[in-house]
Structures are given as structure tokens and as C-alpha cells.
Amino acid sequence: MTRTVEWEDRLKAYLTEHGLRLTRQRRVIAEAFFEGEGHPDIEELYERVRAIDRGVGQATVYRTLKLLVESGLANRSRFGGAASRYEVSEEGEHHDHLVCTRCGRLIEFHNETIEALQEKIAREHGFEIQDHKMEIYGLCATCR
Asked: With the C-alpha atoms ordered 62, 66, 68, 73, is the resulting torsion angle positive or negative?
């Protein structure tokens, strides 16, 4: 997904469908989310937003993130039971994560061999994959 116009069009369509508007505060939060990097938690996104507009409250950030997840524009994950983290949902794109158990660093990766093996295993068991995620926990190069 291009992070400029497409997210805005998709969010507007979702909000309209649910009788909601793209308010100034929702736009600021969405822009901070889509223009940022990584997998922010609520606090991190709230700090990004507050750097742009000090009038936006944490509850508004939480509610807007919930709308982004419900609309399919964002994914929510809890790596190792930590606070929920959010990332942009890219249609047709899939990746997995390496999670450092010491510093919390997240490394995204994609490996065709692993993907093919997962599909092979599913077929062997008569299973149809609808979605999956892989999280590998350990120590990053810096923490080792």
C-alpha cells in the first residue's frame, strides 16, 4: 500500500460506511502512524502525535488505532505477551518477526523456503491456511 493517498481513501471509506468522519485528530494520528517506522505501541504513537499536536489525548489515539485495525489498515500484535504493538497492514505482503527477548527489538523477515514448508505441512494434514504468523524469540546481535 502506498502510505499516502491509499490509506486515507481506505480510511475515509471505512469511516463513512460506519457513520463516522475523518476528523482533524484522526487524520493527525493516522499520519503519525503511516509516516512513522517500526511497530509502535500506544505510548510511542501517542508521543509521535503529541509532537505534532499537543491537544490530542491518549484515549483518542487508542480509539483511532482500534479503527485502523478494524478497517484492515493496521495489524495488532503482542510479541511475547508485551504491550500491543501496531504495524501498517500491506495488502498482499507477508513477513515474520525475530523478537529480541532482552531489548525488544523487532526484525522483519520473509523467507520463501519457510513459507513453502508451511504450505506443504498444511497440505499433508488436509489443512487450508487462512493466515499465519511466525515469531522467533532470542537475542539480537547487539544483545548477544
From this structure: positive
